[in-house]
Amino acid sequence: MNREDFPMLKNDIIYFDNGATTLKPKCVVDKIVEYYTEYTSNAHRGDYKTSIKVDMEYEGARNIVQDFINAKSREEVIFTSGTTESLNMIANGFFAPLLEAGDEVLITKSEHASNVLPWFRLQNEIGIKVNYIPLDDNHYVTLENVKKVITPNTKVISLAYITNVIGDKRPIKEICELAHQNNIFVVCDAAQAAPHISVDVQDLDVDFLAFSGHKMLGPTGIGVLYGKKELLNSLVPTNFGGGMNESFDDPNSIYLKELPTRLEAGTPNIAGAIGLGEAIKYLESIGMNKIQEYEKSLRSYLINKLIDIKHIDIIDIESDSGVVAFNVEDIFSQDVAVYLDKYNICVRAGNHCAKILKDEVGVKNTCRISLYIYNTKEEIDRLIELLSDKEKIRNEMI
Amino acid sequence: MDPEIKREIIMENYLHPFNKEVPENKEEYDYINSNNESCIDNLDIYMKVDNNIIKDIKFDGEACAISTSTTSIMIKLFLNKTIDEALTILDNYENMINEKEYDSNILGEALVYDEIYKQQNRKHCALLPWNGIRKLLEKYKNI
Questions:
Q1: Which of A134, A180, A347, A363 is such that its CA lies 20 to 30 A from the CA of A163?
Q2: Is the Cβ–Cβ distance between A59 and A79 less than 8 Å?
Q3: Phi and psi of A380, rounded to 5°?
Q4: Which residue, A213, A266, A212, is CA-closest to A237?
Q5: Who contacts B4 (Cβ-Cβ below 8 Å, separation ≥6)?
Q6: Spatial contact of B63 and B43, defined as CB atoms under 8 Å apart
Q7: Interface contacts A/B by beta carbons within 8 Å
Q8: Which of the residues of A are catalytic?
Q9: For residues A328-342, b (16+ Cβ closer than 10 Å) or e, as one string?
Q10: Domain count, chain B
Q11: Which residues from chain B sit within 8 angstroms of residue A350, using beta carbons?
Q12: Interchain CB distance below 8 Å, B66 and A332
């Protein structure tokens, strides 16, 4: 749907790598160009018209994000460079000062590197223990399995809402309920969820949530850290500097501003935030439920065709997101990706930054198709046509 | 070289790579892991040198058609060569991949990659095992 809004699609490509990043609608690009050509100024500074316009747009973007995830207050929305920075701020700024040796953090083996390595680092530095929630036969997280591994030492559960290789959606709301009964915090990596499904932080009752702009039609270099206000208030800033301090005379008298600026030192990514706001407006004009339904229908169309190809092994058939990882029998995933590129089809090959997932699925590398709103059944037909002839792949992959 | 012949040589070395196995007496070998940060290939390379002569090279790992085939071809070229001879071949191979001047007489089957520069993303694959083995060879150079 809405293909005419995406200038990149005029380049005659079939873009199936939306889990990595998404194409941008013209309105987002225009909105960014407008900032750079019509009202370039810094935020929170001047008393002149363009600067005031910047404040309105930048803080307006925060309001748009607040509505989009249904945060209770706008102070709970912090602009970051992306999911990675958000998750690192949560681990290092909130949990590092709070956790002690022996405390446990629960993740899974299908998490992205950015929800693994910050916790590994805390294990190495302060002696917490990273444990894994076992995945079921489909590689999904079940509430039962979470219950099994919670101990009195468990302090944090940190999970992707939707995973980036399997594509399963986790029962975050139920997990939050269980966690909170046991005084456990829940961190949610929503990088693969926010672009595709409606996310309501109050309904989920999640403590922290992170996502990136560029995976949801927005620009690169902008993302969001959501946290409950009382928790964000005690998050120690990673960056100290301009914009976030109220006053300082000497090291003993540093006074910081309130949220959200306290956590946004330096000149923010103004164009990025404004662009993200526009991207969210665009998504909302279609409707997140409609987007989810459309992707579901595309996925089942794709699966139904892939499943008939004998030499293709699909990693997960049942999950309901737009992510489909597969391998062609006896052909290395990268060679399949290079072959498809010859027909201007963009797919991702590799481990997709989920390097410990191989322990679970027994496959290190896969080809991944990740769908989005502008993909069509005709594009899938073309992909299937190219994948169905194994000899052709083998002949043309080098 | 005829493109069809190139293809056949690459596929032959990919499907039936030479010496793709972990050596039994690993301790007699120098070892290096070579992985490609821009992609997903991951190769373990084992080299046995005796009296400045490369006596054996074996490899293992997961890699694409280009990385696997070039490893196989490299091993065949290097066997029973001196360290200096191997380094000369290596320098010329790298020059070929990077579109610089090179001596085509000493590259044998490795000439099948003489046009790989046309596919930027494959250049890394074509250089992967060679970058790894350079580190092993240079250790001997410095002795």
A1: A180
A2: no
A3: -65, -40
A4: A266
A5: none
A6: yes
A7: 34
A8: 353
A9: beebbbbbbbbbbee
A10: 1
A11: 39-40
A12: no
Tell me phi and psi for residue B33, to 5 degrees. -100, 130
Instruction: Choose the closest CB to A365 out of B14, B62, B66.
Output: B62
Rounded to an integer, what distance in angstroms lies between the CA atom of residue B128 and that of residue A334? Answer: 14
Class of residue B85 by CB neighbours under 10 A (exposed 0-12, middle 13-18, buried 19+) = middle
Euclidean distance between CA atoms A216 and A23, whole angstroms: 9
Residues of A in contact with B62 (CB under 8 A): 332, 364-365
Cis bond before residue A134 (omega within 30° of 0): no
Among A350, A364, A398, beta carbon nearest to B39: A350
A273, A275, A281: which is closest to A78 by C-alpha? A273
What CATH number is associated with residue B85?
A: 3.90.1010.10
Beta carbons of B90 and B133 less than 8 angstroms apart? yes
What is the DSSP-derived secondary structure letter of residue A261? G
| Alpha carbons A114 and A87: distance in angstroms, whole number | 7
Domains, chain A, with CATH or none: 27-285 (3.40.640.10), 287-396 (3.90.1150.10)
- pLDDT digit string, tens, across residues A152-201: 999 999 999 999 989 999 999 999 999 999 999 999 999 999 999 999 99
CB B65 within 8 A of CB B11: yes
What is this structure's pTM?
0.90
Instruction: Check if the beta carbon of residue A359 is closer than 8 Å to that of residue A374.
Output: no
Length of chain B: 143
Strand partners, A211: A224
Q: Cα Rg for chain A, rounded, in angstroms? A: 22
Q: From first to last of its 143 residues, what are the pLDDT tens digits of chain B?
A: 888 899 999 999 999 999 999 999 999 999 998 876 656 778 999 999 999 999 999 999 988 999 999 999 999 999 999 999 999 999 999 999 999 999 999 999 999 999 998 888 889 899 999 999 999 999 887 66
Contacts of B40 in chain A (CB under 8 A): 333-334, 349-351, 364-365
Q: Could you list the residue range(s) of the whole structural domain that residue B89 is in? A: 3-141
CA nearest A337 in B: which residue? Answer: B64
By the 8 A CB rule, do A157 and A345 touch? no
d(CA A165, CA A185): 25
- Range list of β-strands (E), chain A: 14-15, 77-80, 104-107, 129-132, 154-160, 185-189, 208-212, 223-227, 245-248, 254-256, 312-314, 323-328, 345-346, 348-350, 366-370
Q: Looking at CA atoms only, how far is residue B49 from chain A in angstroms?
A: 31
Quote the tokens at residue A359.
Answer: 């322990």
